[in-house]
């Protein structure tokens, strides 16, 4: 199992331990018998900065409070689900030792999403070539990294676990996100059938209103007849969404996107699964191992055992 860390300002540290000292998902899945590779994307964490390529930046503490730890206090007018947040350990505020431990793990980053995208594809392709078949775990900004790696190495990627991946498809809606994903779920070109030669011309989109009674955003999807994703259609995918996160407003749009493109997927909408109160960093929150149990069950049902236990 390979974790592709990249949630804007984080590193692999977030999968090792939680801010309140509990074991993280890496330990959980090690106990399940998995081999774990924890990676930092190029120009992040242990992967050294390349001077002169792009600009290094940092995210202010107010941003972290608003979207990650205490958005129930600051962001309920931006997305209504925010008020449901209950699972962050501690107060989530500056001065709380648990918040300070979390914030200390956040790092500077390459501010250009386009440079990051260009660097990631060859890096993770090379790693997969070296280690062999793997299940990818992505979170937030690294969501597109998993789609690109699966598209580039479909025979080596045996599953993708996408924790609130950067989205929604094509456009931006609520909360922090990168530049729009012109190829649907990435900014780099994926292999479609029929082939996409000119993205603007070939990937025509339409806006679809949200289901009645749901506190969702509209979705942008392909106009029919939709193109299919050739390589990702070979890979089982699960998307995990916290009940209180800003992703709760639009992750259902991935369902529509994957239905159109022929990708086998499961959506673990945690609130619907009876797991309540989670935000964007759900794998660090108080019920993180309960969520890991759902992921382990999905792996048992969808990924060949010989690959899982390599």
Overview features:
310 residues; alpha/beta; six-stranded parallel beta sheet; two-stranded antiparallel ribbon; 12 strands; 15% strand; globular
Walk me through what this model shows.
The protein is of the alpha/beta class and 310 residues long. Helices cover 29% and strands 15% of the residues. It has 10 helices and 12 strands. A 6-stranded parallel β-sheet has the order 2-1-5-6-11-12, sandwiched between helices. Helix 5 packs across helix 6. The chain is globular. About 2% of the residues have low confidence.
Helix and strand arrangement:
Elements: E1 2-4, H1 25-31, E2 37-39, E3 56-57, H2 61-69, H3 71-74, H4 97-104, E4 109-110, H5 113-131, E5 134-140, H6 143-152, E6 157-165, E7 192-193, H7 199-202, E8 205-208, E9 219-222, E10 228-229, E11 237-241, H8 252-261, E12 265-269, H9 288-302, H10 305-308
Helix pairs in contact: 5-6
């Amino acid at each position: 199992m390979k974790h592709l860390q990249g949630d804007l300002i984080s590193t692999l540290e977030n999968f090792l331990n939680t801010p309140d000292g509990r074991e993280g998902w890496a330990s959980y899945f090690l106990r399940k018998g998995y081999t774990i590779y924890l990676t930092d994307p190029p120009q992040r964490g242990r992967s050294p900065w390349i001077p002169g390529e792009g600009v290094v930046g940092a995210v202010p503490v107010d941003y972290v409070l608003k979207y990650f730890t205490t958005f129930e206090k600051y962001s309920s007018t931006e997305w209504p689900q925010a008020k449901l947040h209950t699972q962050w350990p501690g107060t989530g505020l500056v001065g709380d030792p648990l918040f300070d431990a979390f914030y200390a793990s956040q790092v500077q980053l390459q501010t250009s999403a386009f440079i990051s995208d260009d660097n990631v594809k060859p890096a993770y392709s090379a790693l997969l070539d070296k280690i062999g078949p793997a299940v990818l775990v992505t979170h937030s900004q690294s969501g597109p990294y998993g789609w690109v790696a699966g598209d580039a190495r479909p025979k080596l990627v045996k599953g993708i676990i996408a924790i609130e991946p950067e989205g929604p498809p094509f456009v931006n809606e609520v909360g922090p996100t990168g530049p729009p994903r012109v190829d649907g779920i990435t900014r780099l070109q994926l292999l479609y059938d029929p082939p996409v030669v000119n993205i603007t011309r070939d990937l025509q989109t339409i806006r679809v209103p949200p289901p009645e009674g749901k506190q969702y955003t509209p979705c942008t999807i392909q106009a029919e007849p939709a193109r299919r994703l050739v390589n990702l259609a070979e890979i089982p995918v699960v998307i995990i969404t916290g009940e209180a996160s800003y992703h709760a407003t639009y992750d259902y749009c991935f369902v529509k996107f994957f239905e159109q493109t022929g990708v086998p997927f499961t959506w673990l909408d945690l609130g619907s699964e009876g797991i309540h109160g989670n935000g964007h960093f759900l794998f660090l929150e108080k019920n993180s191992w309960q969520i890991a149990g759902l992921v382990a069950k999905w792996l048992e049902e969808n990924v060949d055992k010989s690959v899982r236990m390599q």
